[in-house]
Write a structure and sequence with these properties.
Low-confidence stretches: none
Strand content: 5-15%
Number of helices: 6
Number of strands: 7
Helix content: 40-55%
Mean pLDDT: 90
Shape: globular
Radius of gyration: 17 Å
């Protein structure tokens, strides 16, 4: 993930650091980058494009900065126009698991085959179950669900991963 601070805005100096990092990572034949910039609820496409241009052949996931957008549907269209962007990572926003799943379903419909929506951020067992049972998304970033005692700083736990895999048994391709 290319990020220089905890927020979704960036400075010119941070941009130079991220461009250098993107260029270096691309030279290592990595599978993809994760980045995203938003200012005042709007995509910061100039900054995003600057990072993309430093790693032109690398697929990019737009990260959870997406959740801070005022017009996420419009942003899906704008991001899908970038051929390098293959995924958008989103929690589905705020609200209950059901509300977030409904929003994710709308995002997936809007994105169609242009870009993959990844559910991630605050995915607990209830939401994981809903996502799987309803076939809302094909990819879920589980984070703490795969960790020992669901501790975000803890190590990945084989037992936790097995539990998640078991929840997907018999679901088949989405």
């Amino acid at each position: 993930m290319l990020r220089q601070n905890r927020g979704f805005e960036t400075t010119p100096m941070e941009m130079r650091v991220m461009q250098t990092a993107a260029r270096e990572l691309a030279s290592m034949n990595i599978d993809g980058l994760v980045a995203g910039f938003v200012k005042d609820g709007t995509l910061s496409l100039d900054e995003f494009d600057a990072v993309l241009s430093a790693a032109t052949r690398v697929p990019v996931t737009f990260h959870r900065a997406f959740d801070s957008l005022v017009e996420p549907d419009r942003a899906i269209d704008m991001l899908a126009d970038h051929t390098q962007i293959d995924r958008i990572l989103t929690s589905g926003g705020s609200g209950s698991a059901e509300e977030r799943c409904a929003r994710l379903r709308q995002y997936v419909a809007r994105a169609g085959s242009r870009v993959t929506i990844i559910a991630g951020g605050g995915v607990d067992l209830q939401m994981f179950g809903l996502l799987v049972e309803q076939g809302i998304v094909r990819e879920i970033h589980v984070g703490r669900l795969a960790r020992e005692d669901e501790n975000p700083a803890g190590p990945v736990s084989a037992a936790s991963v097995r539990r998640l895999r078991d929840l997907t048994e018999g679901v088949g391709p989405l």
